[in-house]
Amino acid sequence: MSEVTKFTIGSEVECSDGVCGELTRVVVDPVARSLTHLVVEPTSRQAIGRLVPVELVNSTAEGLRLRCTTTEFEALEDAEETRFLSGAGGDWGYGQGQLLFQPLYGLGMGGMGMGGTGMGGIGMGGAGAGPQAVTYDRVPLGEVEVRRGEHVHATDGPIGQVQGLVIDPSDHHVTHVLLDEGHLWGKKRVAIPISAVKEVKDGVRLTFTKDQVRDLPSVDLAEPE
User: Fold this and answer.
1) What is the pTM of this model?
2) Distance CA 42, CA 70 (A)
3) Can you give the residue range of the structural domain that contains 180?
4) FRET partner for 177 with CA separation of 20 to 30 A, picked from 43, 99, 167, 198?
């Protein structure tokens, strides 16, 4: 694991014009192996926690100080924990319940299409007789407004919910959207090419039909640990 700045859970967090809350969680990108955000619970305890990018954080001997005002802090994105994957601290140095993972999975090249190893890897089942050259459409991560749990719509109706995104670790571009497709008695997880995402409006809208999505092979995920 690359070196990660350690932020102490429970630390008081200050903005440039006063105390704004307390550090309750940290968020990690398991593909880049880096800490990306802090979850700060407002002092009032009545508002939902805010998702603070690490670029806004200065760590001092006295605690954590943000490069923003309290008004700017309150305008930051809500830290809806259903968007993330919970995990044990492990090598990250955090305790159970103190660490959240972004729902990102690494992309590797395998003999039968896609394969991944280690944390955040995926493997895809399918037919094949040996190594294959596979070309993936790719979109920069910051340009994909897709979140875990969003409903996915095929051209002929709803088809499931987003589980996460598949990322090429070499450049952090999105190649696929992971979808939990089907009902509880017949559910499988599939990887939809990013080129099949038509738009993100009232959910994720695809250029695929339901049958085209169902014909995609299922994928196996290596969950973050």
Assistant:
1) 0.76
2) 10
3) 104-221
4) 99
